[in-house]
Design a protein that fits this description.
By secondary structure, the protein is α+β, with helices and mostly antiparallel strands. Helices cover 25% and strands 27% of the residues. The chain contains 5 helices and 11 strands. Keywords: Copper, Disulfide bond, Metal-binding, Signal.
Length: 236
Amino acid sequence: MKKIFFILCSILLISFSACKKNTSKDTALYQCPMACEGDKTYEEPGSCPVCNMDLEAVETVTETEMSSDVISETSIFNLTSTWTTQNGEDLQLEELKGDVLVMVMIYTSCKAACPRLVADMRNIEAQLPKDGKDHLKMVFVSIDPKTDSPERLKAFAEENVMDTAPWLFLRSSEDNTREFAAVMAVNYKKISPLDFSHSNIISVFNQDGEMVFQQEGLGVNSDATVEHIKKAIASK
């Protein structure tokens, strides 16, 4: 729980604002049946100022002020950084809205902890019902963007038989990676040209990008993680 509190505080400190309003209203329009004033319409019922006949309703107009949902202050969708997938496609995290996200930070040249994190993610995914995976993404975020090009991520995904949905691999700039790691409460440090020391944390986000659970450690019991994912999918 302390980690979740830390993450929520971290997000609140990020100076992004993505609050959007979704409001619609219906407006009835009225017009003189004799067309004394041509096509002129009125928003309120009454009488024609020329012939004094009662105005008649002619149409109803729906006005949509905004089409986006509100994003909460604790959502990772407030991050405006651009990421590149293993297929070379650019996206922002907000484009993942509507899916439950299970996210972990790794690097493809890792020979110690990362293969175990990959196995943990595979184990979690295997325990989830097939009918819920249409609204699920299992996301690997690289902490070594210099080495992990989209082509390298693609090769890694294929080697691990993770090159189809729900698997997704992302990389970005070093600054964006550091920012994202801070939100995830993941610490990492380069200890040699191709090696990093890093936290082993798998995080679960609901469809609004809000963190609901974290699993820390390697090879740990994932029952609680799976249950939180199922609950997040069911609440869609």
